[in-house]
Amino acid sequence: KEKRRVWRKLHLAVDATTHAVIAAEVSLETVADNEVLPTLLNPLRRKIKQVSADGAYDTKACHALLKKKGAKATIPPRKNAAPWEEGHPRNEAVT
């Protein structure tokens, strides 16, 4: 009988200017990347200007969190993405 390996993922928040790691979180493979974003960003006391992330973070919850934090979201839309409500900044990236 083959044992299934348990994978862990390391999620990092990195200062784009200094390249310093400003937040880190470890999760199991079963945790979606977008679920970890609040855990990474909410404890930070610094101003967040921009967040660049992959398409796994293209969720309404992630975009809402970034808007609340005053951060620009640089997140590519997921494959086959549809536009959100009219006027949402993300719609510019959805074609």
Automatic annotation (TrEMBL):
Domain of life: Bacteria
Region listing for Disordered, in residue ranges: 70-95
Compositionally biased region (Basic and acidic residues): 85-95
Domain Transposase IS4-like: from-to ranges: 2-86
InterPro entries named among the record's database cross-references: Tn903_transposase, Transposase_11
Name of the protein described by the UniProt record: Transposase
Organism encoding this protein: Acinetobacter baumannii
Lineage, top ranks: Bacteria, Pseudomonadati, Pseudomonadota, Gammaproteobacteria, Moraxellales
